[in-house]
Amino acid sequence: MCGRSLKLALDHSARVVECHAEFEACIRTHYSMLLGPYSKRPFFYKTALKFNRLMVSFALLSAYFSQPVPLLSEVKASCAARGFCSRNGLESIFMLFRALGFMKVAGHPEDSRFRVFSPSSQACAEVRSMLTSVVAPLGTLYPEDFLIRQVGELDDRAFLEVYFKGFAAVLEANLTLNELLPESYWLVNRDAGHLLMLAIYNDACALDNAGASFRASSYLSLAERLSVSKTHIIRLVREGADRGYFKIHSKTLLEVLPPFILLVRRFMAYSFAISLHSLHLGHTDSQ
User: Fold this and answer.
1) Mind listing the pLDDT tens digit for each residue in 215-258?
2) How confident is the model over 178-199, as pLDDT tens digits?
3) Which residues is 184 bridged to in the sheet?
4) Could you read off the pLDDT of 99-111 as tens digits, one per residue?
5) What are phi and psi of 85, to 5 degrees?
């Protein structure tokens, strides 16, 4: 599928998902499933889920599962060209992954100038857990799609092979979320940004005991829930207020405005669409 066709397909799927009766429930499911592993290792996940770092991880896995010989230098050049990180920053990330036991690096068997890499079983399990929070809700959004049920039965490495063979096409076409929805970048490319976004959204769309919706979040509650500092929350809220997404009340509460609700809904619609097409493209490529 060419880049233009893929973009049209993603746009269409995102619109369909956003209109689905269970879309809101799927957003809550995604948040709940992601919060599970996050709460066990918050200091790891709050940086691992920062958008640019997550894209570096996805670029590594896309190269590993879609190329016969995955070269670290090619991933490094690709990530630097896309602005995910500087070359020095990428080396630091690679070193961290090796230190954590997530990635093995070795010399190229035929050319010592290059390094090849592979993800460890531990890394595959961690990424599978994260992706399940997006893929599992697809079963609700597309109950007739047999492939979604089928990939759920695969082991970690086989699941990632299908997903990242497809995601490699998304990456190659420059159709990652920062390109599809650039107005979300300020929010998700910060520590715990993705989960902060969803926590604020869920607070805003929740129902109180009387059945009435409220649209406010406590800074302290958010900070405690996601193991970040209150200062971190304040910075996010101030930037969001400057951009027209929040209104600040009494230095402790933020009011969520309609543009923020629309932004999060669009972000999650595209997230589900990207996962859906990654699975189908990867499955087709594996045939």
Assistant:
1) 567 888 889 989 999 999 999 999 999 999 999 887 778 889 99
2) 999 999 999 999 999 999 999 9
3) none
4) 999 999 999 888 7
5) -170, 160
CA-nearest of 282, 276, 287 to 136 is 276
CA distances from 197 to 7, 140, 212, 274 (A): 25, 22, 21, 19
Are 230 and 219 contacting, i.e. CB atoms less than 8 angstroms apart? yes
Q: For 67-120, where are the alpha helices, taking DSSP H only?
A: 72-81, 87-99
Where do we find the tokens 């209150």? 230
Neighbour-count burial for 187-219, b at 16+ CB within 10 Å, e otherwise: bbbbbbbbbbbbbbbbbbbeeeeeeeeebebeb
Quote the pTM value: 0.94
With contact defined as beta carbons under 8 Å apart, do 274 and 179 qualify?
Answer: no
| Rounded mean pLDDT, 48-58 | 97
Domains of the chain, with CATH numbers?
3-19+44-182+266-286 (1.10.10), 184-263 (1.10.10.10)
Structure tokens at 38: 């996050």
Beta bridge pairs of residue 26: none
Alpha-carbon separation of residue 113 from 65, 86, 98, 116, 270 (angstroms): 22, 21, 19, 10, 39
Reported as type and span, the H/E element at residue 118 is strand 115-119
CA distance linking residue 80 with residue 73, whole number of Å: 11
